[in-house]
Fold this protein.
Amino acid sequence: MNSLLGKTAVITGASSGIGKAIARRLAGEGSHVFIAGRGVERLQEVARTIEDAGGKASIGAFDLNDHGALQAFVAEAARRTGRLDIMVNAAGVHHPGTIADGRTSAWQAMFETNVIAMLVGSQAAIRAMRETASKGHIVTISSYAGEGNAYHVYGATKAAANSVCRALRQELADEPIRTVTIMPGAVATNFGRHFPPEFVNGMFKSVGISTEFKKGDVLSDTMLEALQSHASAIFASPDDIAGAVLYAVTQPHDLSVSEILVGPRKSFPNAA
């Protein structure tokens, strides 16, 4: 339970879903986690659960489009602890819809978070790892949708993220910094906030759960756990993805774990 004792990790998108699960898992293994997201209250709640379990957590509430804030947060984590061992780009945005009927603002939001913020965070992590002579891992949470199956514009952003990670892997081949891409399938998270309510409610109804979801709502952890437990064959748990991250960052450092696809045994329209 102490495989990361004394190490430092930065996780974006850590106020809910996959990012939250990763933060709790890494903290549970001894890492001081620096968790970033937009909602200060939700970040504080995540930090409380980590600290109540005996872990260490520091928060940074800001929009990832504020690149200066993201760069400063990563640098501060390294400055305060003297190292940076793990950077997890877990923040992601998914606006569903066809290209023909899509909105420019939705496309920009997805590329800004899924690609540009990932680039900014990765660059900041590389600089911090070099400055502190840390043997680090840069982990990006991508998606099955990035494997080239034409999953709308969202899939294009994840394909771009995958390409960036492969380029980084080559750039850093002669340095003690590893690049890992985790590609989840459908995961029971708050993906539904940008989906039509009839889709979300219908999905819950299909597994015997009654909901009155409205667009923009945040599904409770209880509801998401119920969804996953009722439909584990088509929805993975955020903890499953956290386990994949922990596996990747605890392998011998000269072993490159480059890409991991992890998801439920049955395919389902991507919800990571």
Q: What stands out?
A: The first strand starts at residue 8 and ends at 11. The radius of gyration is 18 Å. The chain has two domains: 8-187+236-261, 188-233. The CA atoms of residues 2 and 250 lie 11 Å apart.
